[in-house]
Design a protein that fits this description.
There is one protein chain. By secondary structure, the chain is an all-alpha fold. It has one domain. The protein contains seven helices and no strands. Helix 2 runs antiparallel to helix 6. The chain starts with a helix and ends with a helix.
């Protein structure tokens, strides 16, 4: 049983954006699967997997709002950034930085599309 758990953890470690699992549409689910398949095939572990989750979902600083500085730097270097953003828009992710954009920025982009 311990071997199965270790294997599951190893497989999960290459997955992007920890914890996603609720999908609003079939398109969102398919994009999530494509995102993770792309990561596994390229052997690239996105920065979101190895960094503090608070960087992607920061609390607001009174009078300043949340700071996504660290997350944006990692996102801007990520080879799956565009696919991550596409997923976040399709799934209406309401929190955090996905594909280099905040929820507000994603909403604005979606209106333009």
């Amino acid at each position: 049983m311990a071997g199965n758990t270790a294997g599951a953890l190893a497989a999960q470690s290459t997955r992007c954006a920890q914890g996603a699992g609720m999908f609003e549409t079939r398109e969102a689910r398919d994009l999530w699967n494509k995102l993770n398949e792309t990561i596994e095939e390229s052997k690239v572990i996105p920065g979101c997997r190895d960094s503090d989750p608070d960087a992607w979902f920061p609390t607001e600083t009174p009078g300043m709002g949340p700071s996504y500085t660290v997350a944006r730097k990692l996102c801007n270097r990520c080879p799956v950034q565009a696919l991550c953003l596409e997923y976040a828009i399709a799934n209406n992710e309401a929190h955090g930085l996905w594909g280099g954009l905040t929820h507000r920025e994603r909403v604005k982009l979606k209106r333009k599309l």
